[in-house]
Amino acid sequence: MKNLWNDDEANRAGGDALALRVYTSRLLGADPDLVLHGGGNTSVKAHAKNLFGESEEVLYVKGSGWDLATIEAAGFAPVKMDTLLKMAKLKSLTDTDMVKGQRSAMTEPSAPNPSVEAILHALIPFTFVDHTHADAVVTITNTPNGEERIRDLFGDRVLVVPYVMPGFILSRTVYEMTRDADWSRFEGMILMHHGIFTFADDGKTSYDRMISLVTEAEDYLAKQGARIEGSDVPAAVLSLDELKELAGIRNSVSGFRGKPMIVRCDFSANAQVFSNDSGVDSFSTRGPLTPDHVIRTKRIPVVFNGDASDAISSYAAEYQSYFARNATNGLTCLDPAPRWGVWPGQGTLSFGQNVKEADIIADIVEHTRSAILSAEKMGGWKSLPEQEIFEVEYWELEQAKLKKAGGGPELQGKIAVITGGASGIGRACAEALRAQGAAVAVLDINPQCSELFSSPDAVGIPCDVTDRVSVDHAVAQTVQTFGGIDILVSNAGIFTSSRLIEEMDDESWENSVSLNLTSHRIVLQSCVPFLKEGVDPAVVVIASKNVPAPGPGASAYSAAKAGLTQLARIAALELAPHGIRVNMLHPDAVFDTGLWTQEMLAGRAASYGLSVDDYKRKNLLRTEIRSADVGSLAAAMAGSLFGKTTGAQIPVDGGNDRVI
Ligand code: ZN
Question: What are phi and psi of 454, to 5 degrees?
Fold first, then answer.
């Protein structure tokens, strides 16, 4: 474990305790082997003057919803110490009342809710208190004789606290254990199956102790031959059948979750070692690394042995019995869908309602796998009994959060493929879909698309849509990246220059037919097997006003687009039994696409005897059609608004008397 302390950076805090607290909290947050995604918490005690000029001791403790890696001063909630210490002495207190009591003792009402560990931080009689869920420490505690191992390793330098529920009960337990204790002899405190605390009157010592105690735990694992190193072997590429199985898994998990899911695949060497182990059925289903992971990952994953959809159904049924076994009055059963899966022969899968959630789960799974494999070399992985995990999963504070949570944007969890998406209408469609929450794969012949779209929820894949191999490859990459396909915006096209039929050359004709018609068939063919497994799947075909209202000189373009429209109408007929909607969009006069230079526009306007502005608005509504307007309509057609419409042709042209 690397000590990241840097004197220059620490000195920038200028002796301000809260600024130093921000600095060392971020150091802890920077190491995923210490804390992951909002885990852990830190605090500092300071004196502050209140409104009446009186000095009060205040605990600045991490606020809920903040992540140690990125926390700022505003992320710490200031709570009066005397209230917290009084609360520690109460015989019992519900966690909801504890949160209320803490909030009412805050000296800054707009600060976030204090961590549920605030009372415990207050009890520890040192200025700086650091708490993490360090993998190495928790791994040792999650073995059959974990407590003995911890005592052998650390002796009486640490206080060992048996597992109890985090929140008030934990604070109360530590209060009872330490009423007559001499804290000065402790370097830290180990919470069985949960994590580690270190503390000191200065920020550096508290941080140094965390790093050195965790390093001792890592060295201990190494000595037991139980240190699992990560490895960056490139992920295996799935075969077509395996990709279809993946899309089927996503479909089934989405069904049980009640919303479309993103799937992240981890087929790394470590994931393969884990999923291929003959004991995986047993050790992967004993419980999580630390109880608070249950909120993200559920207690156990689904293991795919045999038919995947059967495995997911049994998982859901077993989840409901787990709820029935453990639930007390008034609890609502959460959705029974798994959050991660073990795919023997391949690796692990993480399921999230959006890319962010799936990635967070994937990170937790990665750390959990290593911890389990380590513990298996030390007598076996031993997680907490299911009742304890259930209590955290159905903790009153978590249930309250769920009731408050909103539904997310319209297309959250959806996966969209957009062809010709590096510019113009295609790009506008990709941006509109993404703005509504969809994950997008943008296919374009322009290799720059992979730079234009290179974020967790948007990938650009260079692809020649007229080439079947190139298309199959891009579609496979999309499915392996996000787990399936729900939306296809078939947009790639070319506007051929004006030419009378009499003068038409074969090459212009063939180019137009190849890109404006045949490529759409190739893309559709490649996507259909995955759309069949999609959630409310939809195809949007970008055709043209030229279909209902052609003009002279545009035969190559209009004939191909008319063919495309007919292809889409037949697709609507063929795919309706699979629940796949196919609708067409006829844009006209979209000039902000980069195909049109100012010069071309001026020339065209002049030929009609119009100004450029009037030319752009040459439609019944006298309105300009922008690519973003087409993108918004395409996104709407992919969404629930058009959920009962298929085979429709919708113009976006400002009104055209020839079309009407
Ligand atoms: Zn904790």
Answer: -145, 60
Poorest-pLDDT segment among 24-28, 178-182, 394-398, 466-470: 394-398
Mean pLDDT along residues 370-383: 92
Cα 457 to Cα 432: distance, rounded to the nearest angstrom: 13
Strand order through the sheet with 195-200: 76-80, 55-62, 41-49, 128-132, 195-200, 188-191, 158-161
Residues 149 and 210 in one domain: yes
Domain-terminating residue out of 378, 404, 430: 404
Asked if 377 contacts 438 with a C-beta cutoff of 8 angstroms, the reply is: no
CB 301 within 8 A of CB 309: no
Residue 464 confidence (pLDDT): 97
Q: In the chain, what's the furthest Cα-to-Cα distance?
A: 102
CA of 92 to the centre of ligand 1 (A): 20
The whole-model pTM stands at: 0.93
Mean pLDDT estimate for the chain: 93
The dihedral region occupied by 481, where left means phi > 0, alpha psi between -120 and 50, and beta the remainder, is alpha
575 belongs to a structural domain: yes
CATH number, domain of 265, equals 3.40.225.10
Confidence of residue 229 (pLDDT cuts 50, 70, 90): low
CB-CB contact of 484 with 358 (8 Å):
no
Total of domains in the chain = 4
If you measure from the C-alpha of residue 585 to the centroid of ligand 1, how many angstroms do you get, rounded to a whole number?
Answer: 53
Residue 231 has pLDDT above 60, yes or no: no
Intra-chain end-to-end CA distance of the chain, in Å: 71
In a domain, 230, yes or no: no
467-479: average pLDDT: 97
User: Which residue segment(s) compose the domain that 465 sits in?
Assistant: 415-590+625-652
- Rounded distance from Cα 84 to ligand 1 centre (Å): 18
Q: Is 325 in the same domain as 367?
A: yes
Q: How far apart are CA 446 and CA 198, in angstroms?
A: 54
Å from CA of 569 to ligand 1 middle: 57
Co-location of 460 and 347 in the same domain: no
- Whole-number Å distance, alpha carbon 15 to ligand 1 midpoint, is 28
Q: Are residues 612 and 635 in the same domain?
A: no
28 contacts 133 by C-beta, under 8 angstroms: no
Q: Is the pLDDT of residue 230 over 60?
A: no
* pLDDT at 51 (0 to 100): 83
Residue 645 main-chain phi, psi, to 5 deg:
-125, 130
Residue 322 annotated in active site: no
| Shared-domain flag, residues 64 and 161 | yes
What tens digit of pLDDT does each residue of 435-445 get? 999 999 999 99
pLDDT of residue 616: 92
What is the SS3 string spanning 45-80?
A: EEEEECCCCCEEEEEEEEECCCCHHHCCHHHEEEEE
Average pLDDT of the segment spanning 460-464: 97
Residue of 220, 557, 608, 615 with catalytic role = 557
Rounded to an integer, what distance in angstroms lies between the CA atom of residue 113 and that of residue 99?
A: 7
β-pair partners for 348: 266, 342
Residue 432 shares a structural domain with residue 387: no
Q: Taking residues 172-196, what's their average pLDDT?
A: 94
Specify if 491 maps to a domain: yes
Using the mean position of ligand 1's atoms as its centre, give its distance from the Cα of residue 116 in Å.
9
